[in-house]
Amino acid sequence: MIRDPELLDQLVDTISRFVRERLIPSEARLAEEDTVPVELLQEMKEMGLFGLSIPEEYGGLGLTMEEEVLVALEIGRTSPAFRSVFGTNNGIGAQGILIDGTPEQKTRYVPRLATGELLSAFCLTEPDSGSDAASLRTTAVRDGDHYVLNGTKRFITNGPEADLFTVMARTDPSNKGAGGITAFIVEGGTPGLKRGPADNKMGQKGAHTCDIIFEDCRVPAESIIGGKEGQGFKTAMKVLDRGRLHISAVCVGVAERLVEESLHYAIERKQFGVPLADHQLIQAMLADSKTEAYAGRTMVLDAARRKDAGENVSTLASCCKLFCAEMVGRVADRAVQIHGGAGYMAEYAVERFYRDVRLFRIYEGTTQIQQVVIARNMVREVS
Ligand code: COS
């Protein structure tokens, strides 16, 4: 749903200009220095990027899902690590509190997440629990009016910097499944919360992940999201539903950028006396990539509109994540192929994107998990 087309056009134009004029020229620096330059971080805060999907009453822009997707399509046109910093505040970092938090929790934290004053992270994955999220082992044991957390969370995006964590932990040891899990809000400075060294990743330099270790970490009982034990797995799943649409839009944005890079290169570079773009085998790759990116754009917008209309889009969000993450992998592969030897060289953006996009098929639910979710929902709907 688009509430005010003129206002949205202005926002999308501003972001598109920011991506073109400020972020794209800084991509190589981001990769080299492995950090988002502070001046760009400040500009992102001033533009409201940390609060895109946070409701206006908490100081965000309150974008609908369709509006958020249109913005994410623009942001996807540059290195995904730029998005990772603020995307987490809008997405998996804040949504748990927004969807299931108490009014006090929302008032206490969300306005500062919307401005970027607080950076947030989502702690679900563990060393022995990734796709099988319900088997997580981090425990939270009640002790008076506190809970004591113990366990390790792995590959936590924004982990090294985050001020606020949504942490899924098991409060009911007799329930080994989803029902024993509770979601907590844990502040970064809480004694007993430790950060491991930053991970050395294949791509997405500038977006940092690390282990978050809880050692007798005491949090007040009112840190339970929504105040009720046993709801944490469902909170996490609802958060991921929304996140999957956002990530799908980012995948489409990256694919569109790669199609453009491939097209320009194919027009400029000559082989056999004519531009690459005149060769039919190159044309086939360009056409396939264009078609697939368009298919991705169409499905993400459709699912977003349905979500805004109140439909349960759990299945469709997984369809989008499955298709768009795989699609951008194919597009990036063709982009390298069209660039030939140049595509293997670090000075060309496609080399970096090729590594960056590999993560999309893995995080926020692997492709195989999306297949499981889709098929299970299909079977449930008819039985
Ligand atoms: N929204 C709301 N509730 C949901 C839900 C959703 N999208 N998906 C599941 N639930 C509920 C179920 O309805 C069920 O509730 P009841 O016990 O009341 O019936 C409960 O959660 C458990 O669901 P289910 O039995 O389907 O859980 P499983 O352990 O079988 O696992 C999958 C489900 C595999 C889908 C889940 O573990 C998953 O998504 N894994 C991937 C995790 C992931 O994306 N990790 C990425 C890292 S986080 S960035």
TrEMBL record:
Pathway(s) of this molecule: Amino-acid degradation; L-valine degradation
Keyword Transferase: no
Residue ranges constituting the Acyl-CoA oxidase/dehydrogenase middle domain according to the UniProt record: 121-217
Required co-factors: FAD
GO molecular function, one term: flavin adenine dinucleotide binding
Signal peptide start and end residues: none
Sorted UniProt keywords: Branched-chain amino acid catabolism, FAD, Flavoprotein, Oxidoreductase
Keyword Flavoprotein in record: yes
GO biological process: branched-chain amino acid catabolic process
Domain Acyl-CoA dehydrogenase/oxidase C-terminal residue range list: 230-378
Gene3D superfamilies in the record: Acyl-CoA dehydrogenase/oxidase, N-terminal domain, Butyryl-CoA Dehydrogenase, subunit A, domain 2, Butyryl-CoA Dehydrogenase, subunit A, domain 3
Pfam families in UniProt: Acyl-CoA_dh_1 (PF00441), Acyl-CoA_dh_M (PF02770), Acyl-CoA_dh_N (PF02771)
Superkingdom, taxonomy of origin: Bacteria
Every Acyl-CoA dehydrogenase/oxidase N-terminal domain range: 9-117
Stated family: Belongs to the acyl-CoA dehydrogenase family.
Protein name according to UniProt: Acyl-CoA dehydrogenase
Lineage: Bacteria, Pseudomonadati, Pseudomonadota, Gammaproteobacteria, Oceanospirillales
